[in-house]
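mind reviewing this stuff:

——
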Amino acid sequence: MTAQPIRQHESERVPRNAEGIAAALSGAQRMEFYRELLAAAPEQAKGVLLRWWGEAMLDTDPQADARADAVLAGSVPTISLDDLLARRRAAGLHVD
């Protein structure tokens, strides 16, 4: 018998690179993204890419409307900060 993952891996909707991010953004957002990326110092470029990747992922989320409705209805599952930090520590993740 072989083990199967509970949740199938899905490729990211938006590739984590400048080309992928730009392709997912609207015209005005794309221009702003490129403006920020080109103006960024080399040590700031990663932060610009991460911020805009997050924006692109949110903008392309096929469940965005359902998620917004759940937030407004107060039906989104929540977790306390203490529990979240405990989970991160248990997983060996960085906690500041």
